[in-house]
């Protein structure tokens, strides 16, 4: 047998081994990332942990039904919903501060956009209803990000998914 | 760790397996007939595609790259091959009357082939009542977004546009855009001018031009031989991708599986039934032998889904294995990628329209069917032989006969899988027409056609 053929067979075996390893490891790292989320707070550190778990979860190979092998899926969903709730609440607080403490529209808009990003990135359309203050986000978007609203100068149109 | 997991190891595994299979094909290529090599590569590709079927073809990334490289390479050769070979062939013919006969006979037989395809399709569609009971397929027709519809409406082509596009506007632009009829018109104009100058002022005045064209032809066909050698490897990759795609799309296909089956049946009847009769009675050739000798051109068409992309191999096989004279092969086969194209411009849009009519319980008068058939014949006069042209023809036909374009949008999932057999029909139709025209103009070498194919020395795959 030629050396190049032997090299290809060895490469195939290595790839096969790494495929099996990466499939198992991708499940393990997702489980670990979910466990590491811990208590949900509206902080950059907590967001980074959820982001990582979401990234790993989305990267799971859809051809092996790996998502069914994720432990604590309920905790993971709850953490995402809770963070989305906190992000919307932060936007509502910023809106309230605008009236009381003179926040600019652009400041509030930043929070509203961040909340929308979190909602779209973390949740599926049928999970929106599970965020108790989701209606607040829709109302804030109507005020700050829709055309004709009282938002900032850029007037980006945000299309709610619901 | 993250870096290790970010690599798609299964896609790499598929690549390595494909490379091993390439080595096996390379070994086989010296042992058996070239046609058999192509057949083996298709089987190997289908097995790889079935074993590694994946959502979104995620395991086929590297094979798709190899397939795309091959399609790009062969498409890059289309314009120079046609330009140089048509000029060369017609210059050697040196007979304006014969040029005219080849041209008119080619158009006649291509259009006749389209007309037969239209009749067969309407008969099959009518007899089977294709689409009856499949109303659910179109239940979401109103939900097709307006922006999507607008995008599809832009594809629509009218009769005047079809005619206009046939003629050259910019020599360099038409060559770059692979506008086949325009390239042929340019080449014919050059050849006619050459023959005129040669006969009026003597051949010495233009001999340099003839030598230049002959030299260029030799070089281009030599390059082509390198690309043709890659065909089995590309066929393996492209078949694997199609098989994987088919399995991952199976849910979308289930609802319209009968339509897909009908498209395959009608296309295969046209390809191997109607064309066999034409070959037997008009070209006086053995159909089985003809299909065997042009098998690799058929395999390339089936897997690349590009009539134009298959041209270099088609022309080569017509000349070297069927015995069609160069001037006919170089003229008629390229013409068949624009005029005719029975699979994409006749069978596909008519079956879609009949499927929609039966599914929604509409009844058409005979006159409406006749208008639809006439529109298909018009469409078959000028469509580009590129992957995806079937969508354009379907949109154009639906628009012309006042059927909703949204129905075409809902049937798009089956476009790719049916494009394979449609392209096969187009290419075989063009090949058969070339053989018929060669026979009718006494430019068919029976000794080449009757020569038995032996074992390859691998170089059998090469263009001459």
TrEMBL record, chain A:
Origin: domain of life: Bacteria
Signal peptide boundaries: 1-25
Keywords of the record: Signal
Protein name as it appears in the record: Uncharacterized protein
Species this chain originates from: Faecalicatena faecalis
From TrEMBL, chain B:
Localization in the cell: Cell membrane
Pfam families hit by this protein: SDF
Keywords: Cell membrane, Membrane, Transmembrane, Transmembrane helix
Chief location category: membrane
Topology within the bilayer: Multi-pass membrane protein
Transmembrane portions of the chain: 6-25, 32-53, 73-94, 106-127, 180-198, 219-241, 253-274, 295-315, 335-357, 369-389, 395-414
The name this protein goes by in its record: Dicarboxylate/amino acid:cation symporter
Organism, scientific name: Faecalicatena faecalis
């Amino acid at each position: 047998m030629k050396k190049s053929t032997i090299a290809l067979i060895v490469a195939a075996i290595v790839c096969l081994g790494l495929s099996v390893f990466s499939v198992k490891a991708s499940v393990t790292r997702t489980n670990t990332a979910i466990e590491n989320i811990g208590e949900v707070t509206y902080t950059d550190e907590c967001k980074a942990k959820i982001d990582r778990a979401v990234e790993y979860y989305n990267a799971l190979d859809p051809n092996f039904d790996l998502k069914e092998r994720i432990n604590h899926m309920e905790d993971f969903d709850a953490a995402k919903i809770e963070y989305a709730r906190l992000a919307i609440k932060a936007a509502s607080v910023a809106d309230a501060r605008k009236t009381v403490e003179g926040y600019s529209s652009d400041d509030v808009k930043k929070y509203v956009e961040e909340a929308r990003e979190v909602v779209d990135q973390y949740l599926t359309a049928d999970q929106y209803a599970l965020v108790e203050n989701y209606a607040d986000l829709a109302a804030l978007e109507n005020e700050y990000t829709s055309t004709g609203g009282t938002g900032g100068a850029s007037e980006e149109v945000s299309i709610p998914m619901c | 760790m993250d870096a290790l997991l970010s690599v798609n190891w299964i896609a790499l595994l598929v690549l390595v397996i494909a490379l091993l299979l390439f080595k096996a094909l390379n070994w086989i290529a010296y042992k058996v007939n070239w046609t058999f090599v192509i057949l083996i590569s298709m089987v190997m590709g289908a097995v790889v595609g079935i074993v590694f079927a994946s959502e979104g073809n995620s395991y086929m990334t590297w094979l798709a790259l190899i397939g795309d490289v091959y399609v790009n390479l062969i498409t890059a050769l289309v314009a120079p091959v046609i330009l140089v070979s048509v000029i060369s062939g017609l210059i050697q013919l040196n007979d304006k009357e014969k040029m005219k006969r080849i041209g008119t006979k080619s158009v006649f037989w291509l259009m006749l082939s389209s007309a037969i395809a239209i009749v067969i399709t309407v008969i099959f569609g009518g007899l089977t009542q294709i689409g009856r009971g499949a109303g659910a397929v179109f239940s979401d027709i109103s939900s097709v977004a307006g922006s999507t519809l607008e995008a599809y409406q832009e594809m629509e082509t009218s009769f005047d546009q079809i005619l206009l596009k046939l003629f050259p506007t910019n020599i360099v632009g038409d060559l770059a855009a692979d506008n086949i009829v325009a390239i042929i018109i340019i080449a014919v104009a050059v050849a006619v001018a050459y023959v005129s100058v040669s006969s009026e002022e003597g051949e010495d005045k233009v001999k340099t031009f003839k030598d230049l064209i002959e030299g260029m032809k030799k070089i281009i066909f030599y390059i082509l031989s390198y690309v043709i050698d890659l065909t089995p490897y590309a066929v393996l990759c492209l078949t694997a991708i199609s098989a994987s795609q088919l399995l991952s799309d199976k849910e979308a296909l289930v609802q319209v599986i009968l339509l897909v089956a009908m498209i395959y049946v009608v296309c295969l009847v046209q390809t191997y039934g109607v064309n066999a009769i034409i070959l037997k009675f008009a070209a006086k050739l053995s159909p089985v032998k003809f299909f065997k000798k042009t098998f690799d051109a058929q395999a390339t068409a089936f897997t690349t889904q590009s009539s134009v992309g298959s041209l270099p191999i088609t022309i080569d096989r017509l000349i070297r294995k069927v015995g069609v004279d160069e001037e006919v092969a170089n003229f008629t086969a390229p013409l068949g990628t624009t005029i005719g194209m029975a699979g994409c411009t006749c069978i596909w849009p008519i079956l879609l329209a009949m499927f929609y009519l039966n599914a929604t319980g509409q009844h058409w008068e005979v006159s409406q069917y006749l208008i639809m058939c006439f529109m298909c014949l018009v469409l078959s006069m000028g469509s580009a032989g590129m992957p995806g042209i079937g969508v354009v023809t379907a949109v154009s036909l639906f628009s012309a006969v006042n059927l909703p374009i949204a129905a075409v949008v809902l049937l798009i999932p089956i476009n790719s899988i049916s494009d394979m057999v449609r392209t096969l029909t187009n290419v075989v139709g063009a090949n058969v027409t070339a053989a018929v025209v060669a026979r009718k103009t006494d430019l068919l070498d029976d000794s080449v056609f009757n020569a038995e194919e032996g074992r390859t020395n691998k170089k059998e795959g090469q263009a001459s």
